Amino acid sequence: MSPFKGKTGFKRILNAGGYSLDGLRAAFTGEAAFRQLVLLNVVLIPLTFFLNVSRVERALLIAVCLLALIVELLNSAIEAAIDRISLDLHPLSKNAKDMGSAAQFVVLTLIAVVWAVILL
To answer: Which residue from 25, 57, 101, 115 has the least number of CB within 10 angstroms?
Structure first.
């Protein structure tokens, strides 16, 4: 059993918040792709408030942008776990990393499609 399990109530919430901030900090400082997506979000999310779209469309435009950050965090976590296991070249490691990259590609395509459908 993990020594981090068993915390309850407010202490668990504080711990989880701290771990989340640590993860965001690690992604921002260690992952160029995450920083690029943050920059994209800094540009696109405020832009949505200047577009003549409904609230639901605005929410969707923002959601797909944030989804890219989520997928990048998961992709980076997969890569870190694979690298922790072994830096040796292995077909399964390559597949895992490539699938994480493919997930990010799909989300970036989703951003382009959703923005195009709503704005065009």
So the answer is: 25
**Domains held by the chain: number:** 1
Q: Could you report the per-residue pLDDT of 99-108, keeping only the tens digit for each?
A: 999 999 999 9
pTM: 0.88
Would you say 58 is a known binding-site residue? yes
Distance from C-alpha of 55 to C-alpha of 81, rounded to nearest angstrom: 39
Any domain includes 39: yes
> 72, 100, 104, 115: which one is catalytic?
72
Model confidence at 2: pLDDT above 80: no
Supply the DSSP string of 75-91, one letter for each residue.
HHHHHHHHHHH--S--H
As a three-state string, the secondary structure of 7-43 is: CCHHHHHHHHHHHHHHHHHHHHHHCHHHHHHHHHHHH
Q: What gap in Å lies between CA 108 and CA 67, rounded to an integer?
A: 9
| CATH code of the domain containing 52 | 1.10.287.3610
Q: The domain containing residue 81 runs over which residues? A: 32-119
